[in-house]
């Protein structure tokens, strides 16, 4: 039962949070004459009437209920919920007075930043050129696959209708391939967590347009046969796509371009200091090798004399066109640029080094706590665990909420039963990792004593265990309905 009133329920007639000055002009204008009487309101807007202090307390109270990296540990596997330094948040608004229609000569600083970021991300990934347009990881995938389609077509190669995707891939990979009109062929994984390279290579043919891989893959395992896979793809004219959402594991250490990949997208909202968790805006830049540069979306930022400009569309007539209006999600690009500049090459290497160290430490601690490790080997930035017999992953996840901990990703990847995917990230301390492992150990011990204990969790959160079947079949979608249903049920 929610104990937090709506702002409308706090309302009392005539209270005001702010009193604007009388608009002199409004009293001189006859609105009915101006707009037509039929367009005027017959009764006042039903707005909440509260004092300024009530307003502040309402929203501050809500903000404190928000679960976030700023408040709590958040080891959500595959999502890289690391801490984003606040200094980047201070710098991004410095640019917000700019308008996207401003003439390029008046926004040279912004263009220089974009140019330097295109270059910086190309060197991090080992690619020849990078577009900053796509607005999310999945959007970057679509951009990359559309470019691959355009490349094959430009060569008169129209037979390639298949994209190969491992069974552990993030759901956006097969979704992207089919959105771009390809047939998806799933490739199995091996028991050591790697993709079955023999099966993958056996599936290569002149009907295959691309392979989409994540390395390290979604179970946090580095694909050790990547060079052989890349060599065989090249021989068969197949483009190799790198889903770089897991780049936090490798930045500064190895580059997808050096592994033989032709296209890579990065998630700036995972690896490069762009806050996420609230649903956006994201940014998924895409880097490509030389053969794909002609197909990159418009526009790239280019050098023009001593300054910078947006490239003319006519300069690359084979471009797949625009993927996003204007300059992409510019504020995110500012944050990522600051992150690159403040860390430098050594700092980036340190990010992935510590992300991997933290994940391996936590893997061992959680194994000691009683979880099963699905692929017991050195992992990269994340790993997959399973609960001991008789305990459900969902129940353990709910139990963690009572400890003020965000659960790991649950029930993904799909090919691991009762999967828990844990990604602590580099920004957490040893003490925090220990506290998490201790909480898991305590919950498992309690569950052994009392099998019902976890089934009732969480107990401390504003909303306790939800009736998930009821929520799907008889959804309660308004506060009034909720109040009524809890009156009748109590
Ligand atoms: C997060 C993620 C994506 C999708 O990124 P979005 O920005 O959410 O679209 C794709 N692949 C992997 C491996 C991911 O972790």
Question: Could you explain how this protein is built, in words?
Answer:
The protein has 490 residues and is α/β, with parallel strands linked by helices. The protein folds into 2 domains: 86-342, Type I PLP-dependent aspartate aminotransferase-like (Major domain) (Aspartate Aminotransferase, domain 2), CATH 3.40.640; 350-471, Aspartate Aminotransferase, domain 1 (Alpha-Beta Complex), CATH 3.90.1150. It is 37% helix and 10% strand. It contains 15 helices and 13 strands. It has helices at residues 24-28, 31-35, 52-65, 86-91, 108-125, 137-154, 172-179, 197-202, 226-235, 256-259, 330-369, 393-401, 430-449, 468-473, 479-489, and strands at residues 129-131, 162-166, 183-187, 208-213, 239-244, 263-266, 286-288, 301-304, 307-310, 372-373, 383-386, 409-410, 420-422. It has a 7-stranded mixed β-sheet, with helices on both faces. Strands 10-11-13-12 form a 4-stranded antiparallel β-sheet, covered by helices on one side. Strands 8-9 form a two-stranded antiparallel ribbon. Helix 5 (108-125) runs parallel beside helix 11 and helix 11 (330-369) crosses helix 13 (430-449). The chain is globular and about 75 Å long. The protein binds pyridoxal-5'-phosphate. Pyridoxal-5'-phosphate binds at residues 78, 136-138, 170, 172, 214, 218, 243, 245-246, 267, 282, 284. The site of pyridoxal-5'-phosphate has 14 residues, from helix 6.
């Amino acid at each position: 039962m929610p104990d937090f009133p709506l702002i409308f329920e706090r309302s009392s007639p005539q209270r005001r949070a702010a009193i604007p000055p009388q608009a002199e002009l409004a009293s001189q204008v006859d609105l009915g004459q101006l707009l037509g009487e039929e367009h005027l309101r017959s009764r006042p807007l039903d707005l909440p009437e509260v004092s300024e202090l009530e307003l502040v307390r309402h929203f501050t109270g809500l903000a404190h209920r928000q679960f976030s990296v700023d408040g709590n540990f958040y080891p959500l596997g595959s999502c890289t919920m690391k801490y984003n330094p606040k200094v980047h948040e201070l710098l991004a608004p410095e640019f917000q007075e700019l308008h996207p229609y401003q003439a390029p000569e008046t926004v040279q600083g912004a263009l220089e930043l974009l140019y330097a970021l295109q270059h910086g991300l190309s060197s991090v990934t080992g690619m020849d050129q990078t577009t900053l347009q796509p607005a999310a990881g999945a959007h970057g995938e679509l951009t990359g696959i559309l470019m691959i389609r355009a490349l094959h077509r430009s060569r008169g190669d129209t037979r390639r209708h298949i994209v190969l995707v491992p069974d552990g891939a993030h759901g956006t990979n097969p979704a992207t391939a089919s959105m771009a009109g390809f047939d998806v062929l799933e490739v199995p994984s091996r028991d050591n967590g790697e993709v079955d390279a023999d099966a993958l290579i056996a599936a290569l043919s002149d009907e295959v347009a691309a392979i989409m891989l994540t390395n390290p893959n979604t179970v946090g395992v580095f694909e050790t046969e990547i060079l052989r896979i890349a060599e065989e793809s090249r021989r068969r004219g197949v483009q190799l796509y790198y889903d770089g959402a897991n780049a936090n594991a490798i930045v500064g250490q190895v580059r997808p371009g050096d592994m033989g990949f032709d296209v890579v997208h990065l998630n700036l909202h995972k690896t490069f200091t762009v806050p996420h968790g609230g649903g956006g805006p994201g940014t998924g830049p895409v880097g490509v090798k030389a053969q794909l540069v002609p197909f990159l979306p418009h526009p790239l930022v280019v050098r023009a004399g001593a300054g910078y400009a947006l490239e003319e569309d006519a300069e690359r007539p084979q471009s797949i066109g625009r993927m996003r209006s204007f300059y992409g999600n510019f504020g995110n690009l500012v944050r990522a640029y600051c992150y690159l500049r403040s860390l430098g090459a050594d700092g980036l290497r340190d990010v992935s080094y510590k992300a991997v160290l933290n994940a391996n430490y936590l893997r061992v601690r959680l194994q000691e706590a009683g979880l099963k490790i699905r692929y017991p080997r050195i992992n990269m930035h994340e790993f997959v665990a399973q609960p001991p017999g008789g305990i459900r992953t969902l129940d353990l996840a709910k139990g963690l909420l009572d400890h003020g901990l965000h659960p790991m990703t649950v029930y993904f990847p799909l090919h691991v039963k009762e999967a828990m995917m844990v990604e602590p990230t580099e920004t957490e301390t040893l003490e925090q990792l220990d506290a998490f492992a201790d909480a898991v150990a305590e919950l498992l011990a309690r569950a052994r004593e009392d099998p019902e204990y976890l089934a009732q969790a969480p107990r401390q959160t504003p909303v306790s265990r939800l009736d998930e079947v009821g929520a799907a079949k008889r959804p309660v979608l308004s506060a009034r309905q909720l109040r009524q249903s809890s009156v009748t049920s109590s």
